[in-house]
Amino acid sequence: MADKELENKTRTFPACCDVYEEKDKIILKLEMPGVTKDNLDVKIDGDQLAIHGKRPASGEKGTYLIREIPEGDFYQSYTIDDTIDRNKIDAALEKGILALTLHLKESEKPRKINVVAK
Fold first, then answer.
1. Cα three-residue angle 22-47-79, rounded to 5 degrees
2. pLDDT 10s per residue in the chain (118 long)?
3. Domain spans of the chain, in order of start
4. Model-level pTM?
5. What φ, ψ does residue 30 adopt, rounded to 5°?
6. Radius of gyration for the alpha carbons in the chain, expressed in angstroms and rounded
7. What are the backbone dihedrals phi and psi of residue 38, each rounded to the nearest 5 degrees, phi first?
8. In what order do the strands lie in the sheet with 40-45?
């Protein structure tokens, strides 16, 4: 897999992530301050949702006393199941947060069953 090759050639780090479920969708929110849309690649391949990007160097010239903000490449992947509509995934990057909305397939959404009186 190309992503595994990428992982082995570059120093990667995970982005902090929250995952939660709403009515008909699953939301993933990943922290990525300093990352622009141009430095971000989100793709789906089979049951793998992969997020790869690059956080640029801060450009600070001083000597670091503490350095906890990673720079360089990051890579994260998630396995998604058959309840997700792979053709209906939305992504938005705002204020350093990447929000991915994974919509459930219509057949997987809860639906009301009408009862008929006879």
1. 60
2. 344 443 334 456 777 899 999 988 999 999 888 888 998 999 999 899 999 888 877 777 888 888 777 778 888 899 999 889 999 999 999 998 999 999 988 776 677 788 888 8
3. 2-108
4. 0.74
5. -120, 135
6. 19
7. -70, -20
8. 12-13, 72-79, 48-55, 40-45
Structural tokens at position 99: 């929000």
The encoded tokens of residue 42 equal 């989100």
Fold of 2-108: Immunoglobulin-like (2.60.40)
User: What is the residue type of 117?
Assistant: A
**98 phi/psi in degrees, rounded to 5:** -95, 120
List the beta strands (DSSP E) in 25-117. Answer: 25-31, 40-45, 48-55, 72-79, 84-94, 97-104
28: nearest Cα among 101, 80, 89: 101
Q: Are 39 and 53 in contact (CB under 8 A)?
A: yes
87 burial type by CB count under 10 A (0-12 exposed, 13-18 middle, 19+ buried) = exposed
Which residues 6+ apart lie within 8 Å of 86 measured at CB?
A: 44, 80
